[in-house]
Amino acid sequence: MAEFTMELNDEQKEVRDWLHGFAADVMRPAAAEWDEREETPWPIIQEAAKVGIYSLDFYANQYFDQTGLGLPMATEELFWGDAGIALSIMGTGLAAVGVLANGTNEQIGTWIPQMYGTPDDVKVAAFCSSEPDAGSDVAAMRTRAVYDEAKDEWVINGTKTWATNGGIANVHVVVAVVEPELGSKGHASFIIPPNTEGLSQGQKFQKHGIRASHTAEVVLDNVRVPGSCLLGGKEKLDERLARAREKAKKAGGERVKNAAMATFEASRPVVGAMAVGTARAAYDYALEYAKTRVQFGRPIIDNQGVAFQLADMRTSVDAARLLVWRASWMAVNGKPFNGAEGSQSKLFASETAKKVTAQAVQILGGNGFTREYPVERMHRDAAIYTIFEGTSEIQRLVIARTISGVHIR
Ligand SMILES: Cc1cc2nc3c(=O)[nH]c(=O)nc-3n(C[C@H](O)[C@H](O)[C@H](O)COP(=O)(O)OP(=O)(O)OC[C@H]3O[C@@H](n4cnc5c(N)ncnc54)[C@H](O)[C@@H]3O)c2cc1C
User: Which CATH number fits domain 126-252: 2.40.110.10, 3.40.50.2000, 2.60.40.770, 2.60.120.260?
Assistant: First the structure.
């Protein structure tokens, strides 16, 4: 176990500077174009793959870094460059984590390389959990997976929505119901291999922000996958279901509610780090602008009304980063989230990003309101962080329940 530290080591500083260079030189100049095009920035993903940023190796190194700072540091730098492009680069990692966390060694070895492809032929992956009627209420999921014992195949039917990289992914990870009576405890995750018959893309969404990142519905119509595509394997699933049945029986047959909310605790700091990246980008831009924009014969930062805003912005960004680093360190070192620290970090960082980007728009005045300047895009991008991976209201619900022990609704 690593002690908690607030300082990056020399190696991490080197990685940070390298990522910052990529974010500043490759991502930032391309950001407005891909935002406008609303398309996956394949050439940038390919460039990231060529230099080694878009790869399992790179992601796994940060993910397993025992200090807990590697992943949030890398995420912050890339999202500082541009949120939409960064999500296109990191989206695959988020799907890969599902396999890393629950898959067998064989599944990890088979599927994760196919999620990334090669630098000459890059691929992306998607994680599909949300459904039209099951967003915050994960337990309301309806996509069904039924085991066909004779063929050792799973048959999956349903419609997923809001899937990042949905339909354009080489490999989809799909969460489905295997035992409806058990609520979210009766869910399991499946790999849908490339070119599987029955999987198709539904509507592609036109969005308010992170427009370079592809978001779409995924339709599963009698999709058949081999038994080996059940993440973790059948034996482990059967054991888990037996335990859940036992627990449900003890709870008087009451449906096991919202268990999935807690399982996100460890992944939420990553979204917090994305928000910190966007917030810092807007703060950096506004600070420089305020020093150079002259009104009434002096730079606007000479006014306390502007300078104090920047002071608050910087304080919030730093506070958000500290919460993210703490939760990330807890996650990698297996600390219990007794105060829902993962949710705290995501709640605070995402709300900070919304507020700080709005302040940046204000500091840039009319220019802040135009697409000539990047803070307008950052402000639109920031709105996603209080929505995906659990809305701010759901984070508050998780924190409130955790600290009180009361099943607050
Ligand atoms: C761009 C984008 C990318 C996404 N990527 C993915 C992805 O890759 N994979 C995936 O599976 N999903 C993804 N999502 C889905 C995302 O996680 C959901 O949108 C989110 O969980 C909210 O669900 P919902 O949209 O159905 O909102 P709803 O659950 O309908 O919520 C609507 C409003 O009601 C509030 N609310 C709901 N329940 C409560 C409650 N109990 N108490 C208080 N308030 C409540 C919410 O906070 C929210 O303000 C993505 C979404 C977007 C927009």
Answer: 2.40.110.10
